[in-house]
Amino acid sequence: MQFQSMRAQQVKSSPSMAVSMLAKQMAAAGEPVINLSLGEPDFSTPAHIIEAAYQAMLAGHHLYTAPNGYPELRQAIVNKFKRDNHLDYSLDEICIGNGAKQILFNAFLATLESGDEVITPAPYWVSYTDMALLNGGIPKVLACGAEQDFKLLPAQLDAAITPKTRWVMLNSPSNPSGMIYSKVELVALGEVLEKHPNVLILSDEIYEHIILSDKPFTSFVEACPQLKDRTLVVNGVSKAYAMTGFRLGYAAGPKALIAAMNKMQSQTTTCPSSVSQMAAIAALNGSQDFIAESTKEYRAHGQMVIQVLGQIEGLTLQMPEGAFYAFPKCEGFIGKKTPKGSVIKNDTDLAHYLLQEGKVATIPGAAFGIEPYIRLSFATSQQQLHQALNLLRTALAALI
After folding, report:
1. Do residues 306 and 317 touch, judged by C-beta distance below 8 A?
2. CATH 3.40.640.10: does it fit domain 61-285?
């Protein structure tokens, strides 16, 4: 008996989660694996946020909420967009989900018809294309290599849009490349999109606060306010406040789209976690000192990782401007052999070798729609990074 629908058969499990789970299994079996595969901050959630969650449970905030969450949290999100991005939204232009991932899924579920195109610049976050497929869409992947700083170009976008285009995906700072679109670059993309009034824009800004360079972050709607009425800005508390397990994402967008997404949520997960919502209120309304302190650490980690990787012949890379990933091109190792005689045919083989023999978990570029690259998260301790880089350097040096 066939249990999977054709739609389910089209998609794969999250590559980053799959590698992370394998790394954890190896570690549980006693193998000394260092996991650099997941984008998960290696910090404890700030104490005042944990305390808010605890007090919320004591106060009885452990029941269902409305699908669009507590109004107090939506107000905190409205205030955040005003404070950080100079954007004005109303409460009915805000939706909340069980992580930014669910926000993205609900957006596609609410809007895509079979055969609609979702323009996705590569490298892209691993789940964009599969989410589109699951909801009947067709990912239209546009290669945006290192020669164009991993960014979508206006002419490239203009040439790709067709009458079937429903969404254009943007991600800044980018996972996996760490590149940030400047305000000028966003304005140029906006000028193209102005010519296509039926195209929706999804701006994934989950790494907004993790800035590693002097280049400022600009929200897409801040750069292109004329496109506010068809742009969904997606964000969340996972990365900025080390709250990945709280599963709390949010978005701002046009009222009709937000209403449709809330309807989808009412028929799937019902509502976001009540306790996580109270914790998110504390995160957004409380002290923002943690962001500055953690970003300082990420910068130091990134500089150290880039310096070490830059000394390895066969890898080429550039310093990320945001997020907490190194994304080196590994072309120099394709075609080499492992000590056991296996040929490294692609970046997936290389990532597999680094995990099995080097005991370092990384994600191959193929998972992000571009090859040959590997992605390493440096959102972990200095000690772990030093160990991981030494293991990686030794494993790569063993290839012949």
Report:
1. yes
2. yes
